[in-house]
Amino acid sequence: MKIKINTTVILAVIITLTAVCTWFIPAGSYEKQLVDGKDVLVEGSFHYIENSPQSVFEVLKAPMQSFARSTTAEIMAFLLIIGGAFMIIEKTGAITAAITRASAIFMKHPGLRSLYIPVSMTLFSLGGATFGMSEEVLIFIPIFIPLSISLKYDSLIGISVPFLGASAGFAGAFMNPFTLGIAQGIAQLPLYSGLGLRTIIWVCATAAAIVFVMLYARKIEKNPKASLTYEFDRQKIKELDLNNKTEAVFTLKHKLVLAAFAATMIWLVVGVLKYEWYIVEIGALFLGLAIVASVLGGLKVSEATSAFYEGVKSMAEIVFLLALATAIIIVAENGHILDTILHYMAGVISHLNSTVASWAAFIMQAVINFFIPSGSSKAVLTMPILAPLSDLIGISRQTMILAYQFGDGWTNVCIPTSAVVLGVIGMAKLPFQKWFRFVMPLVGFWFAMSFVFLAIANYIHWQ
């Protein structure tokens, strides 16, 4: 008999294992100093402290503490607002009308349809590579799921196009200010230096993601029942009436709602690039869109509020899963084992030859990424240790930053502690284990590619 294990159980098991580790891994801590408003670890300051093994009650408190954690709470609120805003837009009929019209155009021109995946993924990858698009992809999932279904693909394509596209660019970035920019600043390297090799890496990573998604698309075109989201998609088709073969009629209300959405997206790009907007500002923008769309769409107050809360309810499961994922990090932090793990790993790396050490640094970052999915936080925590360490073992600081990028980026698509992963798969009602099995071949290729490029960077003494 096949046992089904859902995402909640997976996260609960990981929380338990993390708590067990706090009983066996010695507690330790690095001293920190404030640099440009960020807490940076002081090299050579690691020291052991009194153990803080986490009890059952401490573990049970961790999910509650997740809601009080500012960064997690912001993402939770963001997800609720996004759910409500898109449900209002869906209620106006604008999404269905737009999807039906776009689908008709794509299906009449097979050449356009064949460009849907590669062109869209390239654009998202550019977003990841240049301004660090990550959480922002959640905005596009409610659009790309029905669009992909209407093009005779499935919801998995709908989440893969924006998510894997942006992830390829984020990890293989040549200008990402939140990872590459911070890491190079800490390592005292010229901002965005090493552009030539990084561009080649970005092209390879993006091409791999595109080919991977297109191979899956070809598979489900031959056999729609092979889709991992087949049952969910059948329900989605009914909800959006995508089986309706009549040509969509755009009313003035539809056009006004879509114009408001387009204006919101323009403001989003301007806000992120010019004013350094993040989750709070983007959430406020979409809350405003919800209000404007309900007015332009001619919804009654009762209809708008009902639709908004229906969208909020649809995100409740994702929000709680995010609380469980954050609880893993909280248990590890309260047990003071993260600094110890970093100290142990840095000690191992220091005794390896240069190429193997760069590979080990990459794996080390991937492990740490499970507990600290934030790229900027990881740069601040690890680069003060790894940058001077690279000088001692003969790795250029540029190569060490590349190892950090790879370790930070590739696993962002498959770890259950990532808010974006949980949000993306939650919108498609896709269990984590199904997504994990689907995406691991691509992650495996990215890992192999990383080993090759790190060896090349070390061989040419990349500066």
Describe, in plain words, how this protein is organized in 3D.
By secondary structure, the protein is mostly helical. It has one domain. The chain has 20 helices and 4 strands. A two-stranded antiparallel ribbon has the order 1-4. The chain has a two-stranded antiparallel ribbon with strand order 2-3. A hairpin with a 2-residue loop joins strand 2 and strand 3. The chain is globular and about 65 Å long. The chain starts with 6 loop residues before the first helix and ends with a helix. The model has no long low-confidence stretch (mean pLDDT about 85).
Considering the chains and any ligands shown, give keywords for the structure.
463 residues; mainly alpha; two-stranded antiparallel sheet; 20 helices; 3% strand; globular
The structure class reads mainly alpha
Count of β-strands: 4
Largest β-sheet summary: 2 strands, antiparallel
Strand ordering within the main sheet = 1-4
Q: Sum up the overall morphology in one term.
A: globular
Report the order of strands and helices.
Answer: HEEEEHHHHHHHHHHHHHHHHHHH
**Number of domains as seen in the coordinates:** 1
List low-confidence stretches. Answer: none
Proportion of residues in extended strands:
under 5%
Radius of gyration: 23 Å
Mean pLDDT across residues:
87
Estimated helix fraction: over 70%
Terminal Cα span: 56 Å
Supply the number of helical segments.
20
